[in-house]
Design brief:
The protein is α+β, with helices and mostly antiparallel strands and 149 residues long. It has one domain (9-148): Alpha-Beta Complex (Nucleoside Triphosphate Pyrophosphohydrolase). Helices cover 23% and strands 34% of the residues. The protein starts with 8 loop residues before the first strand and ends with a helix.
Length: 149
């Protein structure tokens, strides 16, 4: 796999408050697709390092390693055809690792304009309904379940 191709290994980072308001971001140029922070691993970085980097790049939030919670949960899914050209020829599936970051209250975010056009803090139920991927929907619902215990 060349350096010009994305690795089919990524992170999904749920950024949320203790009250379970969840940050969702609108992707650029894809017809109102909303998601949590996501991104592919670069080089040999750890998945936790990928999560920290993506949070900083996509939101401007400077989290510390101890702030990121690794759920030890991974989902494998088919890469949508519109995004397959970003990967090496023949790569059709991605493995996404779930992390979360709890912040004290909804924070202002600095969007990466080449990736996102808008940001919203929503109650977890609305966030789960708004995001487009099943892995993101499931992770938000699991976040709520974990906090109800």
């Amino acid at each position: 796999m060349s350096d010009s191709h994305k690795q089919p290994v990524s992170v999904l980072v749920l950024i949320h408050t203790p009250a379970l308001d969840v940050l969702v971001l609108e992707r650029t140029g894809n017809g109102k697709l909303w998601q949590s922070v996501t991104g592919s691993r670069e080089g040999t970085e750890t998945l936790a390092a990928t999560a920290l980097r993506e949070v900083a790049e996509e939101t401007g939030i400077a989290a510390q390693p101890a702030d990121i919670l690794d759920w030890q949960l991974a989902n494998r899914f088919e890469i949508l055809p519109r995004w397959r050209a970003r990967y090496a020829p023949g790569v059709t599936h991605n493995t996404e690792h779930v992390f979360s970051l709890c912040v004290p209250s909804p924070l202002p975010v600095r969007l990466a304009p080449d990736e996102h056009t808008a940001a919203l803090w929503l109650p977890w139920q609305e966030a789960a309904d708004k995001v487009f991927s099943w892995t993101n929907q499931d992770a938000i619902r699991l976040l709520a379940h974990r906090h109800q215990r």
